[in-house]
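PROTEIN DESIGN WORKSHEET
SECTION A - STRUCTURE
LENGTH: 262
TOKENS:
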């Protein structure tokens, strides 16, 4: 760190592993398996704004998807210790996301960006918003005065966030995104053509029927299940809160370059 300019794919893979955005990540295996189990048992906190019904009630099925799409260890007997995100799958996801961003730019589409993880990913989304705006996209402005049980739904640096007690709030809930989309419909305004987000913001948008792409950690399986089902178009696997948000800068540069937005 830092990598000057835009990294090559090989340089980005090396960087992701060095900063633990991928590779041997900080999230322990026992935390991953606990979240997979809770999702399978119907704990809606782990559904990230999605309606999974009875389709994912076996935690081994969840583990199989996470091994395929994220690169976690596929051995169900591996219960404790280190777990992994395959950096090649991270870059594959970035390239798929870049394709959808390119489509948005070419069509000058309406785009809404949002994060439930502002401590890690806010600037990733802010830079993406700026690049899309420069390409002619309409970065959607959310209605004023929106609230959920957790706090105020607002925009900061073109990114929708949850604010509580004068602090940007970490949330897995899909309620803030649903609140925005229903408010837009109530005002007679068009919905976004694309949502770029994470956590429940991405899940709820996909569930609402809006094209949705996003980022998710290896202990947040719902968005990967949604991608497998086609509810969410792209989910990029990564550790969503590493030691410095600047570590994501080379990743963002690669994404925007692949999308033709740099």
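SECTION B - SEQUENCE
RESIDUE ASSIGNMENT:
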């Amino acid at each position: 760190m830092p990598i000057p300019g835009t990294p090559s794919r090989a340089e980005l893979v090396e960087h992701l592993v060095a900063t633990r955005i991928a590779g041997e990540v900080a999230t322990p295996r026992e935390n991953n398996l606990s979240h997979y189990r809770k999702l399978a048992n119907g704990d809606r906190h782990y559904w990230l704004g999605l309606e999974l019904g009875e389709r994912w009630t076996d935690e081994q099925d969840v583990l199989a998807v996470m091994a395929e799409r994220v690169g976690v260890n596929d051995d169900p007997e591996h219960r404790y210790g280190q777990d992994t995100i395959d950096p090649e799958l991270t870059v594959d996801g970035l390239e798929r996301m870049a394709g959808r961003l390119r489509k948005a730019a070419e069509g000058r589409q309406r785009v809404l960006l949002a994060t439930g993880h502002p401590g890690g990913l806010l600037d990733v989304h802010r830079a993406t918003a700026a690049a899309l705006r420069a390409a002619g996209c309409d970065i959607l402005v959310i209605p004023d005065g929106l609230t959920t049980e957790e706090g105020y739904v607002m925009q900061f640096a073109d990114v929708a966030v949850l604010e509580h007690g004068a602090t940007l709030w970490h949330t897995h809930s899909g309620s803030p995104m649903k609140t925005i989309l229903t408010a837009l419909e109530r005002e007679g305004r068009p919905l976004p053509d694309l949502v770029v987000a994470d956590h429940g913001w991405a899940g709820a948008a996909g569930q609402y029927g809006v094209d949705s792409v996003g980022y998710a950690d290896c202990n947040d399986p719902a968005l990967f299940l949604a991608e497998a089902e086609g509810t969410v178009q792209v989910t990029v696997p990564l550790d969503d809160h590493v030691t410095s948000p600047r570590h994501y800068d080379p990743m963002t540069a690669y994404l925007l370059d692949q999308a033709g937005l740099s």
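SECTION C - NOTES
The first helix runs from residue 9 to 18.
The CA atoms of residues 142 and 180 lie 7 Å apart.
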